[in-house]
Amino acid sequence: MYRWIQSTQCLQFHIENQIATITLNRPERRNALSRELLVELRNALLESDDRADVSVIIIAGAGKDFCSGYDLATTYVNTANKAADKTSVYRDGQESSLDNDAWRLERAQELIRTVVDIHKPVIAQVQGNCLAGGTDLALYCDMVIAAENAVIGFPAIRSLGAPPNMMWPYLVGPQWAKRLLLTGDCISGADAARIGLVLDAYPVDELADQVHELARRISLNDQGVVSALKRSVNLSQELAGASTMARLAAEIDARAHRSHGPRQLAFMADIAESDLRTALANRDAPFGDSMVRLNQRGGNP
């Protein structure tokens, strides 16, 4: 039945009324992005783009969260196991280096940027946590609709590095991008809509209906026109350097991974000696609740 989709162990895929809904389906891991999930997501996006019975795509998350980020626990276990395999002829089994790290990031980037490269528009339906790699995915979508109480941010900068896909300044400008990224603080869906990080925000119990209504309105138009308009707007971002920035962001993130500052070293030691939950709790404790709150004038936090 499907051209691209061979299995859907990490997501759900559904087509109805010209709308393809791709649901990240790892709620027990808060929909963290493993490589397996990213491969399945790419295949589902390509399947949707190839089909004449699909006009618009929704990416959602099963359970309470949209996506908590990249699957750090799996990543560290796999990296350790592969590093122990001295017989591997592949780069992911070799000793860590700046270039090998950038290569890994670029491979993941190729998968996640499928959202940008396909012709059909993609709407992110964001509820709960949308953190770190979850923002890489959401902010690449053509539009983001969030629950008012969603939590959006990149707290991983406090211990691991920089966003390997840098869409923040293209959406909110340099000052807000720096305000959020230099602290690792998060912002609610409601306030994210006020600063333009997301298109709009609704009460969580209205979110799915609002997203589907937007998708329905888009699906009323001819696919060729919608595709042309998506690509036209995307080209304006290309002219502003979005693709070049994404390419550089992977290398910048790889460099940041090797800062070996005290917070990064403490985080890695906590993972080695305890577990990821403890490491995250210790990392974030000095920052309090980490939420940006706009003042009544809607300008500065």
Largest sheet: 6 strands, mixed
N/C terminus separation: 51 Å
- Derived structural class: alpha/beta
User: Can you tell me the CATH architecture?
Assistant: Alpha-Beta Complex
Average predicted confidence as pLDDT: 91
Radius of gyration: 19 Å
Please explain how this structure is put together.
- Helix 3 (about 100-110) packs across helix 10 (about 240-255) and helix 11 (about 260-275) packs antiparallel against helix 12.
- The protein has a single domain (about 10-260), classed as 2-enoyl-CoA Hydratase, Chain A, domain 1 (Alpha-Beta Complex).
- Strand 2 (about 20-25), helix 1 (about 35-50) and strand 3 (about 55-60) form a beta-alpha-beta unit.
- The longest helix is centred in the last third of the chain and has 17 residues, at about 225-240.
- With about 300 residues, the protein is of the alpha/beta class.
- The protein contains twelve helices and ten strands.
- A six-stranded mixed sheet has the order 1-2-3-4-6-9, sandwiched between helices. The protein has a four-stranded mixed sheet with strand order 5-7-8-10.
Quick overview:
The protein has 301 residues and is of the alpha/beta class. The chain contains 12 helices and 10 strands.
Task: Produce the secondary structure layout.
Elements: E1 11-16, E2 19-24, H1 35-50, E3 56-61, H2 72-84, H3 98-112, H4 114-117, E4 122-126, E5 129-131, H5 133-140, E6 143-147, E7 151-153, H6 168-181, E8 186-188, H7 189-195, E9 200-202, H8 207-219, H9 223-239, H10 242-256, H11 262-273, H12 276-284, E10 291-292
Parallel strand pairs: 2-3, 3-4, 4-6, 5-7, 6-9, 8-10
Antiparallel strand pairs: 1-2, 7-8
Helix pairs in contact: 3-10, 11-12
